[in-house]
Specification:
three-stranded mixed β-sheet; 24% helix; single chain; 14 strands; 7 helices; alpha+beta
Amino acid sequence: MDTGLLQPWCAEVVELTPANDRAKLTDIHSKEQWDAIHARYISTPKMTSWGRDLAAALNHTTIVFKTRVAPLAQYLQSQNQQRSQNQTFNQNSKQTELFDETGASLGWFDWVICTAPNVQAVELMADSGFSQQDKITKPQMQACYTLMLGWNDVQKLPETLNGQLAPQWDVAYLNSAILDRIFVEHQKPAHGELLPSVTIHARNDWSEAHVDDGMESVEKQLLQAAKQALNWNEDSAPSQTDCHRWRYAATIVNKDAEELGILIDATKQWIVSGDWCAKGNIESCYRIAQQTVKAIVQTQ
């Protein structure tokens, strides 16, 4: 079914060198254009729209939000208690009972699939006897700080964004020790009703080095770097700012090492997976999901 929620994003991509003591103006050069043949797709009208639509179409499924699942070792304790209380308990059952952090049962499940970042997956599987426990921490992950900037009117945009200093662009790759990329939100497909805004990703190595810094300090440094990149003045400064930290955002890819792939404990019917099991990008999400579904189907 074509919902129209996914649209090709044929972005104009530039390479951007921020202004500095030697160069008073930001340098912007065309890099490439993403085309429909090798399309990048974007969820519209919001980034969450497609996922919410998929979730709404699922049958026999209950999605529970804002719930922290307790470590699976608690399942083993519950199972042992139930065996002692009920001698007819099926010892060959592979179902797992999950609990939240208050100890309340979340139900019994045929399979447990954990897609949390590996640091959190280690905590979830701690002392549970998960057969692949030692492999979970092999991939190294880094953080990412994101800065969101907004303006009340397109007329208030700095010249680097309004097309006066360079052709209009949608995505910028930065030559910067702090910032990595800039995305122009209101120019994305079906995002025209948004107020002018940009999302700026900090470099992963810089983010990891400052991952435990106070958010106020981080935001101040990111704003200073963003001002150098977008070259705004008092009249074109953003009117809204927000900063967010993604603690486990990117997998460090070792080109000489084989991808980890999903981790399966067939006896317990538990799987640890996620994009971090591969290259940590959106393509990895798709491939790892395929591996997970295939592994479950093959056991039927």
